[in-house]
C-alpha cells in the first residue's frame, strides 16, 4: 500500500496504523503531512515528558552533536558521567548502566539478578514477576511479562520466571524457593490497564525480600522521571529497592534508558554487560537537561496538580456517562469504560484530532506531557464527552 509520496509498504507490517504521517510536533501537539493538528495525550507512550521537540532538548542535542557523538563505550565520556551522578544523587542507588531502550534495561536487570544469584546465592536464578506485568519485547523480558497475548509467542520462552498476583503478598511468599533470587514489578502496570501496586504492598514486598535475602527490582520504564508526581514511583512508598530500570521519559524523546543498582547489588564483572551505543554523549546530553528540569520541586508539584485536575475531570466524565473508576497516579491515569469499546472511542477521538490510548478493550490510558496545561486537559475532556455520546458508550446518568 502507498500513499504518495509515502511508501507505507517499505516498513515491516508489525502493527495497525492509521494512514497518517506525522511531520512536526511542539508541546502537546502533532501535525500531519496534510497540516492537520492533533492534541496528543499519548506522547509516544510517555516518552515525551516535556512534550514534543522541547527546545532545551533540541538545543542540547545540537550542541553535543557538534562536539562529540560517541567515543565508543570502551572510554568514559563527560555527559554519561554527569547524568549517572545526577541519577545517583536523586535516588537510593549507587551505580548506573546506560542502555538504549526499556527492554534492554530490563534485560540488564534480569542478567544482574542472575549474576547476583550465581555469586552469592548458590546459583539461584528464578525471578518472581506478576500477572499482567509488562517488561519488554526481548525473549527474556517477554518471558518475565505476565501479558496473556505473549504466552503463545516465540516458544520456547526463557525459563526462570514465576508469576504472582499484584497486591497479594501471600502469592509472592508461596513462590519463594531456594532457586529464587529476586522479585520484579512495575509500580503501576501500564499495559494491563494502569493497575497500581499499593504503597502498603510495596512496603510488604520490600520487607519480605529483605527477610529472605532477595533483590527487589522496580521497573520504572513508564512510572519514572516524574510521571507519578515524584521523580521515581517507588518513592511514594518510602522504600529503597535494590535495582531500578528507567526508559521512555528519561531521554525526552530520544532513545535512552538506564539500569540503576545499589552497591550491594552491583556485581557485574568486566565483560558481562555492554552495548555499542550505550551511554553515548548525544543521548546523555538530552537526558541531562530532561532530568535537571523534571527533578525541580516546583516542576514535580505542577505534575501533581495537573494529575489531580485530570483525575477530577475524568471522574466527572465517568459519572456523567455511567462509567467506572479512575486508576493510576500523577499523569499516568486510566478510565474504566466497563465495556469493550475502547477501540471505537480511540478511533473517534483520533478523527476529532485527539490522541489517546487503549491498553485494554475496556480502558483508556492517558499519558500527556508532564507540562500539560489546564486548557489542554479541558479540550481532551470535552472531546471525550462528545465521543462517548456519539458512540453510545454509556447511558447518561446526570
Would you mind describing this structure in some detail?
Its EC number is 2.6.1.11. It catalyses: N(2)-acetyl-L-ornithine + 2-oxoglutarate = N-acetyl-L-glutamate 5-semialdehyde + L-glutamate. N(2)-acetyl-L-ornithine binds at residue 137. One of its GO terms (molecular function) is pyridoxal phosphate binding. The protein has two domains: 55-295, Type I PLP-dependent aspartate aminotransferase-like (Major domain) (Aspartate Aminotransferase, domain 2, 3-Layer(aba) Sandwich), CATH 3.40.640.10; 297-391, Aspartate Aminotransferase, domain 1 (Alpha-Beta Complex), CATH 3.90.1150. Mean pLDDT is 95; it is low at 393-398. The strands form four sheets. A seven-stranded mixed sheet has the order 4-12-11-10-7-5-6, with helices on both faces. Helices cover 35% and strands 18% of the residues. The chain has 398 residues and is α/β, with parallel strands linked by helices. A hairpin with a 2-residue loop joins strand 16 and strand 17.
Strand-helix topology:
Blueprint: E1 22-26, E2 29-32, E3 37-40, H1 43-46, H2 55-67, H3 78-89, E4 95-99, H4 102-120, E5 126-130, H5 139-144, E6 161-164, H6 169-173, E7 180-185, E8 188-189, E9 195-196, H7 199-212, E10 215-220, E11 243-246, E12 257-261, H8 281-294, H9 297-321, E13 326-329, E14 332-336, H10 342-351, E15 354-355, E16 357-360, E17 363-366, H11 374-390
Parallel strand pairs: 3-15, 5-6, 5-7, 7-10, 10-11
Antiparallel strand pairs: 1-2, 2-3, 4-12, 8-9, 11-12, 13-14, 14-17, 16-17
Keywords: Amino-acid biosynthesis, Aminotransferase, Arginine biosynthesis, Cytoplasm, Pyridoxal phosphate, Transferase
Modified residues (N6-(pyridoxal phosphate)lysine): 248
Protein name: Acetylornithine aminotransferase
Amino acid at each position: 500500500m502507498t500513499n504518495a509520496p509515502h511508501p507505507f509498504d517499505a516498513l515491516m507490517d508489525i502493527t495497525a496504523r492509521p494512514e497518517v504521517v506525522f511531520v512536526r510536533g511542539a508541546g502537546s501537539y502533532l501535525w500531519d503531512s496534510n497540516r492537520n493538528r492533533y492534541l496528543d495525550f499519548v506522547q509516544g507512550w510517555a516518552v515525551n515528558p516535556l512534550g514534543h521537540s522541547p527546545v532545551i532538548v533540541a538545543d542540547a542535542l545540537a550542541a553535543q552533536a557538534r562536539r562529540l557523538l560517541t567515543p565508543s563505550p570502551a572510554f568514559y565520556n563527560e555527559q554519561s558521567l554527569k547524568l549517572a551522578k545526577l541519577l545517583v544523587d536523586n535516588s537510593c542507588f549507587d551505580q548506573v548502566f546506560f542502555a538504549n531502550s526499556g527492554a534492554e534495561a530490563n534485560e540488564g536487570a534480569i542478567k544482574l539478578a542472575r549474576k547476583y544469584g550465581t555469586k552469592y546465592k548458590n546459583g539461584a536464578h528464578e525471578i518472581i514477576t506478576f500477572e499482567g506485568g509488562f517488561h519488554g519485547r526481548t525473549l527474556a523480558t517477554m518471558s518475565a511479562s505476565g501479558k496473556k497475548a505473549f504466552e503463545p509467542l516465540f516458544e520456547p520462552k526463557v525459563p526462570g520466571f514465576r508469576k504472582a498476583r499484584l497486591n497479594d503478598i501471600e502469592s509472592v511468599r508461596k513462590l519463594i524457593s531456594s532457586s529464587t533470587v529476586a522479585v520484579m514489578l512495575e509500580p503501576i502496570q501500564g499495559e494491563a490497564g494502569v493497575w497500581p501496586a499499593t504503597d502498603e504492598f510495596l512496603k510488604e514486598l520490600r520487607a519480605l525480600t529483605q527477610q529472605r535475602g532477595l533483590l527487589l527490582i522496580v521497573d520504572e520504564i513508564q512510572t519514572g522521571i516524574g510521571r507519578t508526581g515524584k521523580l521515581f514511583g517507588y518513592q511514594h512508598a518510602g522504600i529503597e529497592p535494590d535495582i531500578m530500570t528507567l526508559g521512555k521519559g528519561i531521554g525526552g524523546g530520544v532513545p535512552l534508558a538506564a539500569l540503576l543498582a545499589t552497591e550491594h547489588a552491583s556485581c557485574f564483572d568486566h565483560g558481562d554487560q555492554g552495548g555499542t551505543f550505550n551511554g553515548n554523549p548525544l543521548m546523555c546530553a538530552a537526558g541531562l537537561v530532561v532530568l535537571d528540569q523534571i527533578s525541580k520541586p516546583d516542576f514535580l508539584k505542577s505534575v501533581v496538580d495537573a494529575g489531580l485536575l485530570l483525575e477530577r475531570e475524568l471522574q466527572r466524565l465517568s459519572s456523567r456517562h455511567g462509567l467506572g473508576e479512575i486508576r493510576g497516579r500523577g499523569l499516568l491515569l486510566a478510565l474504566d469504560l466497563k465495556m469493550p469499546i475502547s477501540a471505537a472511542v480511540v478511533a473517534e477521538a483520533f478523527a476529532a484530532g485527539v490522541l489517546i490510548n487503549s491498553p485494554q478493550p475496556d480502558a483508556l490510558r492517558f499519558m500527556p506531557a508532564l507540562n500539560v496545561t489546564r486548557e489542554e486537559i479541558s479540550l481532551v475532556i470535552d472531546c471525550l464527552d462528545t465521543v462517548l455520546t456519539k458512540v453510545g458508550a454509556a447511558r447518561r446518568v446526570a
